[in-house]
UniProtKB/TrEMBL annotation:
Native organism taxonomy: Bacteria, Bacillati, Actinomycetota, Actinomycetes, Mycobacteriales
Cited InterPro entries: HTH_MarR-typ, MarR/SlyA-like, WH-like_DNA-bd_sf, WH_DNA-bd_sf
Record GO terms (molecular function): DNA-binding transcription factor activity
Protein name: MarR family transcriptional regulator
Domain of life according to the entry: Bacteria
Membrane spanning residue stretches: none
Any single biological process term in GO: response to stress
UniProt-listed Gene3D superfamilies: Winged helix-like DNA-binding domain superfamily/Winged helix DNA-binding domain (1.10.10.10)
Length: 154
């Protein structure tokens, strides 16, 4: 049976995911990251940053949802990041059962460095592409991500 375009799409998405999980990719990304030693730590920091940018307090539950892991896994990840001095944990003023996470200055600086490195790595990959192709890819991937997220939540 010949593969369909949907099989091809699924295979390409898998290839991209696997490539970004390879040790060489992670090493290149995290080498300059100082205390950030794992992709899950980086993603947890990104979750807190995104909540802060939206003017919302971040919690361990928010990190768990962003990482697509259970609360206990997110809690262990957050604890390691707090020990590394990249986040602070404080009880929420309105609910003592809830913990509010905040990026420290070191956490912000580290995240900015990794973000710049990530941007450089992606730029290298598409350096020979016309800007219009990159713009089209971004638009289509945004649409795909939105539709995938919607499909998962149904």
């Amino acid at each position: 049976m010949a593969s369909s375009r949907y099989d091809d799409l699924d295979e390409l998405l898998t290839r991209i995911l696997i490539t970004r999980q390879r040790p060489d990719w992670r090493r290149r990304l995290l080498d300059s990251a100082g205390p950030v030693t794992s992709m899950s730590s980086l993603r947890a920091l990104r979750a807190v940053e995104l909540r802060e940018r939206a003017g919302q307090a971040a919690s361990i539950g928010d990190v768990a949802e962003f990482l697509a892991v259970d609360h206990s896994t997110a809690s262990r990840t957050v604890s390691a990041i707090v020990v590394a001095g990249l986040l602070t944990k404080q009880p929420a003023a309105d609910d003592q059962r809830r913990t509010v996470l905040t990026l420290t200055d070191v956490g912000r600086k580290t995240l900015a460095q990794v973000t710049e490195r990530r941007r450089e790595m992606v730029t290298e990959v598409v350096a020979d592409w016309p800007d219009s192709d990159v713009d089209t890819l971004v638009s289509l991937l945004q649409r795909l991500a939105t539709d995938l997220e919607r499909g998962v939540s149904q």
